[in-house]
Design brief:
CATH topology of the largest domain in chain B: MetI-like fold
Structural class of chain B: mainly alpha
CATH topology of chain A: MetI-like fold
Strand content of chain A: under 5%
Radius of gyration of chain A: 23 Å
CATH architecture of chain A: Orthogonal Bundle
Oligomer: heterodimer
Distance between the termini of chain B: 12 Å
Structural class of chain A: mainly alpha
Number of strands of chain B: 0
Largest interface: A-B, 41 and 49 residues
Shape of chain B: flat
Number of helices of chain B: 14
Strand content of chain B: under 5%
Helix content of chain A: 55-70%
Radius of gyration of chain B: 24 Å
Shape of chain A: elongated
Order of helices and strands of chain A: HHHHHHHHHHHH
CATH architecture of the largest domain in chain B: Orthogonal Bundle
Number of helices of chain A: 12
Number of domains of chain A: 1
Distance between the termini of chain A: 20 Å
Order of helices and strands of chain B: HHHHHHHHHHHHHH
Number of strands of chain A: 0
CATH class of chain A: Mainly Alpha
Number of domains of chain B: 2
CATH class of the largest domain in chain B: Mainly Alpha
């Protein structure tokens, strides 16, 4: 079931006979951003999941005799510690690998919580309309007015910084984008014939919402999910960088940058490496999201 | 039009009151204010004493009404940490942040508009690709890391601009650039999309057919319409810049509102945090209303809702 039917004239001639799935795969094969983003996100997910297996050293083990060893490409570096060591002699690659867990975990968790909240509010508002819709848009206006990074900092710090607090606070502050998309789409789909058909055969509101409307939103929701996940990853890193997020000795990329800051003038890699990892991950998540949007968009639209 | 403005202002007021309530509740429920003021090592008796002294033992509703009542008279309360009226702290620190926010916004607007228009002139050309890639990169780069990398590069290798402090205009160059770059993607994409849309429209074709030069078509015909949505986005971005100043000010050691927010969070100074969140929200609400009114003034169709 597709929400929008397309007229044959709009389709390019050679893909007219393909099923939607085949068309999607065909587009994916020539979409470089999607491939790059997907590959990096997949790799980072594996790295995060398999951290204890692939990390060469413990991320916590200090060796003060081996403080601030340069990475392998710099003078004084060796293959023993590819990315060098930090001020406490901890292997930087191992900390980077464990840091992927925090970024991916908080990013995924908070984006998922925001998704559940935003999609629920959006579905209810879009489907019921009227007073419920006005209440939801009022809630949205209020949410958008709040300075989210500042509020997140205060709440996480006041409640007590931990991974769970980060996920809950960031999730609760990042639902608006899902809500807007879900609400708009639900309002359109609500008026389509097949929803009338479902109602006429006796489907309840709940059945219509979950079996008729929600499946048609999945593509858009996945796109928003990836874009929000990118935002949340940056916010987590910023909070940890400022010392109100993930607490030492846990390895988080934001925290590693903060710790490396002290020595950044003579050991710039301490700041450069975790930041580059962060940049790469956020870039990949964004490209993946844009890519999914491109390949799932109905023909003839951009 | 007058009615439209009134309605928007009324809505803004309602949002402001709701936001103030939400902020108050969230911050006061997130932790026990008495034990935060007392510090980690305080005895239970000392905490109870502080609770009565600061009035934390009263119901939240009473405390909220007292706070918001005082806010209407311009009194945001007394800082627990600095032992001074928090609004004085705000007035002291505001100039630095306003300077930063406006100069960052200037950079965002100039870079975003310029690249957006240039990209739209030749979609899929090399300049368009360059602009879009730059936008994608700018969206993914963490603000604070970009700041630090610039400090490493420009502070050590090419010491042109000072990297820490806020005593001269030169100190604002790097922080404004860093804060400004973060919003370039939004302005760039919106400008580009708007321009491509408008440049393909009938009235532009007519203008071409009438023999107007490309400059006149671009500036007098196309940009006016294409930039309408950009105006409200830029207004909203100013609001975000104020909140985003927390990170940038900390990286470049600027002593503005972001720094104040950071210090008051670490000092568990709820009145200051409360004031800053609320004032930033107020500024955002005001900018949104102003943006709506401005757009309605330009396009009368928007006045009917």
């Amino acid at each position: 079931m597709t929400a929008a039917s397309t007229s044959p004239q709009q389709m390019a001639g050679d893909i007219i006979d393909l099923t939607p799935r085949e068309r999607m795969i065909k587009k994916a094969k020539s979409h470089r951003g999607l491939q790059f983003g997907g590959a990096v996100v997949l790799t980072m997910t594996l790295v995060a999941l398999l951290a204890p297996v692939i990390a060469p050293y413990s991320p916590f083990e200090q060796d003060l005799a081996k403080r601030l060893i340069s990475p392998v490409w710099a003078e004084g570096g060796s293959w023993e510690h590819i990315f060098g060591t930090d001020q406490l002699g901890r292997d930087y690659l191992s900390r980077l690998i464990y840091g992927a867990r925090v970024s991916m975990g908080v990013g995924f968790g908070a984006a998922l919580l925001g998704c559940v909240l935003g999609v629920t509010i959006g579905l209810v508002a879009g489907y019921l309309g009227g007073r419920a819709d006005r209440a939801a848009s009022f809630l949205l206006t209020c949410q958008l007015a709040l300075p989210s990074l500042l509020l997140a900092m205060a709440l996480v710090f006041f409640v007590g910084a931990s991974i769970t607090t980060l996920i809950v606070v960031l999730g609760c502050l990042h639902w608006s984008y899902y809500m807007v998309v879900t609400r708009t789409m639900t309002r359109q789909i609500r008026e389509l014939e097949y929803v009338f058909a479902a109602r006429s055969i006796g489907s309840t509101d709940r059945q219509i919402l979950f079996y008729e409307i929600l499946p048609n939103l999945s593509n858009q929701i996945i796109v928003v999910f990836s874009l929000e996940m990118a935002v949340v990853i940056i916010h987590e890193a910023a909070l940890s960088f400022l010392g109100v997020g993930v607490q030492p000795p846990t390895a988080s990329w934001g925290l590693m940058i903060a710790e490396g800051k002290e020595a950044m003038y003579f050991k710039p890699y301490l700041v450069a490496i975790p930041g580059a990892a962060l940049f790469l991950l956020v870039l990949a998540v964004n490209l993946l999201g844009d890519g999914i949007r491109d390949i799932t968009a109905p023909e003839g639209r951009n | 039009m007058f009615k439209f403005i009134l309605r928007k202002l009324g809505m803004g007021l309602l949002v402001a009151i709701t936001v103030s309530l939400a902020t108050f509740l969230m911050l006061n429920l997130a932790a026990d204010p008495a034990s935060m003021v007392a510090g980690e090592d305080a005895s239970p008796e000392a905490i109870e004493e502080l609770r009565v002294q600061y009035g934390f033992d009263r119901p939240l509703a009473v405390r909220y009404v007292e706070w918001i009542g005082n806010v209407f008279t311009g009194n945001f309360g007394e800082s627990y940490y600095w032992k001074r009226p928090v609004f004085d702290l705000f007035l002291e620190r505001a100039p630095v942040t306003l300077t930063l926010a406006f100069s960052a916004l200037t950079i965002t607007t100039v870079v975003g508009l310029l690249l957006g228009v240039l990209a739209a002139l030749n979609p899929n050309g090399w300049l368009d690709r360059f602009a879009l890639s730059l936008g994608t990169a700018a969206q993914a780069v963490p603000n604070f890391w970009l700041g630090l990398m610039m400090i490493i590069l420009l502070g050590v290798m090419f010491p042109i601009f000072p990297v820490s402090g806020d005593t001269s205009w030169k100190h604002f160059v790097l922080p404004s650039f860093v804060l400004g770059m973060s919003a370039v993607p939004q302005v760039l994409r919106l400008t580009r999309a708007g321009m491509i849309d408008v440049l393909g429209s009938d009235y532009i074709r007519t203008a071409r057919a009438k023999g107007f030069g490309p400059g006149r078509i671009l500036f007098q015909h196309a940009m006016r319409n294409a930039l309408l949505p950009v105006v409200s986005v830029i207004a909203i971005q100013l609001g975000y810049k104020l909140g985003g100043s927390v990170v940038t000010e900390s990286v470049f050691a600027l002593n503005g509102l972001g720094r104040l927010a950071y210090e008051s969070i670490l000092g568990a100074d709820i009145p200051t945090v409360q004031m800053l969140v609320f004032i930033f929200a107020l500024i955002f609400i005001f900018l949104t209303v102003a943006g709506d009114v401005f757009n309605a003034w330009l396009d009368p169709r928007l006045r009917l809702e």
